[in-house]
């Protein structure tokens, strides 16, 4: 589906145009949005829009990382939006030219909807230009990252505090899941940060340089998000390492119990087994105090063993 | 609450002004402090102070990392103070213009109090400018980091030496807690260091360049603190890894004891069990020296086992 | 085998030339392909082609990493192709001069075949130059990396989900194998990325600068692939660490079972052994309720032990 | 204590001066050494020496890392010496001006003593300048690091070879100690290296640029030492990781022994227990060959178990 | 021992000169080789050769890392050769001046021998200069690293495949040894790479710039070797981590066997012990089917236990 919003020379907004209506030179500026276009619609990118084959290819394939490409006639942006629930990435491609912006996305984009609505609802649309649309799209895109990353952080804090008293298996799975999500989200945030950095330092887009503080603001958000991601990844590693240390310690405690019990009872069991033998000639068995003497010896062994382990510090 | 301190053209300090009294051009320079302002007071930022919407937004949201933004009329600083007990971060935002400094903080700031007191107590206030206030605030802010970081270091040294003879579980928790705190504090110190670096190398603030040695001094402190933080994080990792190695070794020792005991007594118990059987025809039982021969055999087995493990080095 | 494709001054393609036919100055431009050449053919590099001894040496030895060398007469490229099944690297060496490109490879190259076919099949071959061949070769080379790296990624995802229910030994082997492959592939992709970066930023090849967007596109692919490789290596480490944590936890659970069983039954076995002894004077044996009393005591011990471990949280 | 060495205009060395004798303009150049000064002596820094309050503060506090500060009148150095036995850091502060050097240290400094002795013992002191003193102090300072770092390296080699046959506990403690020392020493060497790098690349001190090869030599030493420290830290990590692997393997071997013994003897003990029961009707007991048959069965079980574990490779 | 090779003004090679014969200005260029010189010979560096004291000191001490020092009269190189069997480093110091090269090494150097032989055997020695000697020495030095590093790589591959069926202890030792060797070799290769990089980018040695492709070739080799070293170190870490995971898994399997055996036989042994007691009144013993009932109960217990563990997945 293609939607066109154009500002006429009389500074009024015109909508509901089709590609057939649209004529190149007649508007102050215009915004063409390719929303999940079919093959015929994609063809408009080639003709009449005449974009470079490489940009068109980038729109159609999914291999892209966020980037800027400068062409003589326009600047081409590949950006990524994050879907709030699945953390899935969606490409939003932008062509920004002298008096137009073309947005291209394979699935409906809430960012595009939001900005279109804002533009159409604005009382003084004449203040807008294609660069305002660009800024609003980038700003809204990045703003949408924030709740996602903070949700991951909250999830991590939950793991750390474990108020739900989850079992260790579940916690370890959650931890692994969190690392996985952070890794995935980082692959969007870091190249977007680099994109904004390039944008801020380029000399090719004067419209951007003139509004430097606005783009700088988006860049600051991305910088902050990158730090949050890195710090959360470090924290997951800390939690896991801390768990490993704790587990190793726990493991030793368990083995100490096992060893104490075994060490005390094995010799005793041997002794009682010894006097359970059926040899015809075993002098101790006939001795009247044999039984009590043996009980005494066994008690002594048990106490000695116990004291030995106590002195080794195993009961601390 | 808003407090205004102004130096009049006659070089005297005037305090207790309200935003209504205050008129833009009548002072040599002035300092407006927004201390936990209410909504009406926040509005002064927009009017009459006329700050850029982006800066005002940065004041009101908490997402910011320390940074500098240059606007035509003023320079905007986001800085962080650290609360001594909870390691909580508080934003202190500063607008520094031609003849004013505006500070904005959502909670009372001990740094602002300290500097205001120092200014009001100074006998020659005419020597001060808005940049002196800026320097004093930054300097005091960073000075307040130092005891916090050294407290963490002391806590870590305590863990290392463990003079309180804490149990291993407590130590591992403390270690994890320390890493957590260091991570948290680093998120304030590193961006502040970058802020100072930017400030030192900018050419936009000549008042700063002229007092380079003073700002350089703050930067040196932040550099040192960053190193202390990094080195303490490395040390926590060292302690944990060292603990893991020690624990693995300990674990082997415990299992060696268990194995020695089991290996010696299991065959012996089997033997005594064997001659405890009630078969009617067991020739050994009838033999007069059967019992003593068996005792001899069992002693031999035990000694051999013992020597075997001794030669393997298990008793070292 | 040597194959020569030349564009004559009349803008027609000529093929099937031999090195003997070939005369230097008579073509618009030409492409000489050394496909698994024998020693005599290799000699053509020295004479009549007159390449620098160092370049020729680089062709013949296998020690090379992807690189560009600038000589007065030509630019020399060492590039690597990846074989889809074995992940083996093959060198493809290119000499690009004023009006020629010479490709040299010790084994048949599917990339060279593909580009030659494309050139010969093109209806307007006059549009091609030696730089078109260079671009097509590099582009196709890098395009061939993509399925290989994505195959590794798929394999890793399979390990992560383990839908085939493979045993842990197999999974660990697979994981190690994946890391190994990623390491190996990275050794091709990273220097190729650096090569493209150099190519993009050099001022020596104007034909490349004029088509910057095309080479930039290859570079973007390599950048993306590098990120995919790094992120997959991180993910393998995450999986392994997660496995280690899980295993340590599992290990404790097993030992807890062992310890509980041992701790409950060892004292009981001792007791029953005790009353299995054959001492002539053991008063308890003669007591009528001895047996039932003992059963009661043993049940009490077992229940207490059980409750002790339950309170320790071992059955959670 | 303050000691002054001055070269008079007549090119003779004068010593034993006091701050009262000393007059600013009368010497070719002079060296004032503040050796563990008392409060009154510290005041001389302010008056008559007139150093900047920030430099004086840096002298008095201990928070400093090695650094250079350029002031209009002089250059201020903070350097660290290492004490050979305790690895303790001592600050040595230097003020180098047009015709003077002032050294300041809170404890007696063997480096200052050494250089003073060398200067006083020199037959042609006229060749010296304050920069010669600076170079000699830095050179000697860094030379003193070398035996300390090599001593740590030797200690590490001892751990690696363990010729003294120390127990594992002691080795692990030693390893941890070594890492700790390396961390501590690195905090001196790395900032000193950065200081020298700054010194080499500054354009403000022509006397240093003219003797570049000398300072470059000190820098090379620091570079080498940094490498030695890093490589030793890597080696400690290698030793520890290697120990962990070895330990894990050892752990498995021990458990294999335990498991083999348990698995062989537990069923046998059960069997002999079985026929030790006192049931009145147990047909096997009455059978003449019962005992020998059981012995045969038990031998078979033991051999089978043994072969089972042998085939599993547990005895390799 | 000192050997001098000189090219006379008549373009002929002269050898067998002594330092006494040698006169500074009479040769086109000359090469003086100090091969394991004695103290008297070392003195020639000072006089008549007049090298800078710092360079001479660098020759005599062993603390040096590969580096270049530029002096007015000459360029001083410290390079390292690797001994093939022991991986020991040997310093080869070079002084390259206007019309001479001086090489200095404390032990006989196979690189120097090789280059001297090549020069003396060359039919047109007039083509050589001192820079040809420099290039040949560097090239040969680096060529000698290659087999050493590839030998380590082969050793690592052997460990990985373990075709010799070595025991785990030996493999772990080999792995540690390999890491150690790689660390040691890296300390030669990395600074040599930096040296070549400096050499390639300097503007002080026009003779080098003119032959840039040759030095660039050496640099490429060093770059490749660095990568091989790093990648092999990563691979050793991978093997070790993989071993640790595998071992942890193995450990669990062993403990599972132990636990299964213990859990099944401990209750059974208890039961048979129970009925081996000698209480006078134990009703079960007198019951005719007591024995067979007990056998049935015990079989049931064993089967239940077995099924319990089977369902837990312990036999997978």
UniProtKB/TrEMBL annotation, chains A, B, C, D, E:
The keyword Transmembrane applies. GO terms for cellular component: plasma membrane. CDD domains: TmCorA-like_u2. It is found in: Cell membrane; Membrane. Keywords: Cell membrane, Ion transport, Magnesium, Membrane, Transmembrane, Transmembrane helix, Transport. SUPFAM superfamilies: CorA soluble domain-like, Magnesium transport protein CorA, transmembrane region. Its main location: membrane. Signal peptide: none annotated. GO terms for molecular function: cobalt ion binding; cobalt ion transmembrane transporter activity; magnesium ion binding; magnesium ion transmembrane transporter activity. The keyword Cell cycle does not apply. It catalyses: Mg(2+)(in) = Mg(2+)(out). It is a multi-pass membrane protein. Mediates influx of magnesium ions. Alternates between open and closed states. Activated by low cytoplasmic Mg(2+) levels. Inactive when cytoplasmic Mg(2+) levels are high. This is Magnesium transport protein CorA. It comes from Niallia taxi. The lineage of its organism: Bacteria, Bacillati, Bacillota, Bacilli, Bacillales. The gene is corA.
């Amino acid at each position: 589906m293609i939607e066109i919003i154009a500002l006429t020379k009389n500074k009024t907004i015109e909508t509901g145009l089709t590609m057939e209506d649209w004529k190149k030179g007649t508007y102050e500026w215009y915004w063409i949005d390719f929303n999940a276009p079919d093959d015929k619609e994609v063809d408009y990118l080639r003709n009449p829009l005449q974009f470079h084959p490489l940009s068109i290819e980038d729109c159609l394939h999914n291999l892209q990382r966020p980037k800027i490409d400068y062409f003589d006639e326009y600047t081409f942006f590949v950006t990524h939006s994050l879907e709030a629930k699945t953390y899935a990435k969606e490409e939003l491609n932008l062509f920004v030219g002298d008096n137009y912006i073309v947005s291209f996305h394979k699935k409906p984009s809430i960012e595009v909807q939001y900005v279109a609505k804002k533009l159409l609802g604005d009382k003084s649309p004449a203040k807008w230009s294609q660069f305002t649309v660009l800024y609003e799209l980038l700003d809204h895109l990045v703003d949408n990252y924030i709740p996602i990353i903070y949700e991951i952080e909250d999830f991590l804090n939950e793991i750390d505090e474990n108020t739900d008293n989850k079992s260790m298996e579940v916690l370890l799975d959650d931890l692994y899941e969190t690392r996985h999500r952070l890794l995935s989200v980082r692959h969007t945030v870091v190249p977007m940060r680099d994109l904004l950095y390039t944008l801020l330092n380029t000399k090719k887009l004067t419209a951007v340089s003139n509004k430097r503080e606005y783009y700088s603001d988006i860049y600051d958000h991305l910088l902050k998000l990158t730090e949050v991601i890195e710090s959360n990844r470090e924290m997951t590693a800390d939690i896991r390492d801390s768990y490993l240390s704790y587990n190793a310690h726990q493991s030793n405690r368990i083995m100490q119990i096992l060893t104490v019990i075994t060490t005390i009872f094995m010799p005793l069991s041997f002794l009682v087994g010894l006097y359970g033998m059926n040899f015809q000639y075993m002098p101790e068995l006939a001795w009247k105090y044999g039984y009590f003497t043996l009980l005494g010896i066994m008690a002594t062994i048990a106490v000695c063993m116990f004291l030995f382990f106590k002195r080794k510090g195993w009961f601390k």
